[in-house]
TrEMBL record:
Its EC number is 3.1.4.-. This is Phosphoesterase. The keyword Hydrolase applies. Residues 1-161 form the Calcineurin-like phosphoesterase domain. It comes from the Bacteria. GO terms for molecular function: hydrolase activity. Keywords: Hydrolase, Metal-binding. Belongs to the metallophosphoesterase superfamily. YfcE family. Its cofactor is a divalent metal cation. It comes from Motilimonas cestriensis. InterPro entries: Calcineurin-like_PHP_lpxH, Metallo-depent_PP-like, MPP_YfcE, Phosphodiesterase_MJ0936/Vps29. The lineage of its organism: Bacteria, Pseudomonadati, Pseudomonadota, Gammaproteobacteria, Alteromonadales. Pfam families: Metallophos_2. The keyword Lyase does not apply.
């Protein structure tokens, strides 16, 4: 199974369009969204192409292939525009003989981990900075942000397949980070 991971869209239609093109190119099975889908949030500037209603409409075209969690900028009213659930602050998947704990990162994060077992993959966002690494017996994975990257990081997305965790630049698919799952 191949998972295409994005986070922190913050209502940016232009960034989402680039991500959906990459999702198609990568031929992933599912689109995983780690929160902050429609709203830009009070601490963020408006992202380029801020059109939350159009973002919802575009994502609804892929609803059957989306697995999403709620971010700190998502609200109940957002769910009324989306045809896939985003109400839960976390979700879990079992795939490729591994457990994936999916969260935005404002409740569970690297300093407040949920109960995890050896080899599990902790997938989070919120920081807008990409991570793909093994720490002790766990794997940590953050795809960065497609719309509002922070620090020196460019806009990015993530891929998870049987071989490993990859973070790629949104604009040209260049590999930025890789962690083997062996």
């Amino acid at each position: 199974m191949k998972l295409f991971i994005i986070a922190d869209i913050h209502g940016s239609l232009s960034s989402l369009n680039l991500a959906l093109k990459a999702f198609t190119r990568q031929q992933a099975d599912y689109l995983v969204i780690l929160g902050d889908v429609l709203n830009h949030g009070p601490r963020n500037a408006l992202p380029n192409g801020y059109e939350p209603a159009m973002v919802a409409s575009k994502l609804n075209e892929f609803a059957k292939r989306i697995i999403a969690v709620r971010g700190n900028c998502d609200s109940e009213v957002d769910q009324g525009l989306l045809n896939f659930p985003i109400d839960a602050t976390y979700n879990q998947l079992l795939a490729n003989d591994r457990r994936f704990f999916l969260t935005h990162g404002h409740v569970y994060h690297t300093d407040a981990l949920p109960p995890l077992s050896k080899g599990d993959i902790f997938c989070f966002a919120h920081s807008h900075q990409p991570v793909a690494e093994k720490r002790g017996h766990l794997f940590y994975f953050n795809p960065g942000s497609i719309a509002l990257p922070r620090g020196e990081a460019p806009a990015s997305y993530g891929l998870i397949d049987q071989q490993g965790l990859s973070v790629k630049r949104l604009f040209d698919d260049e590999l930025m980070l890789y962690q083997d799952l062996a």
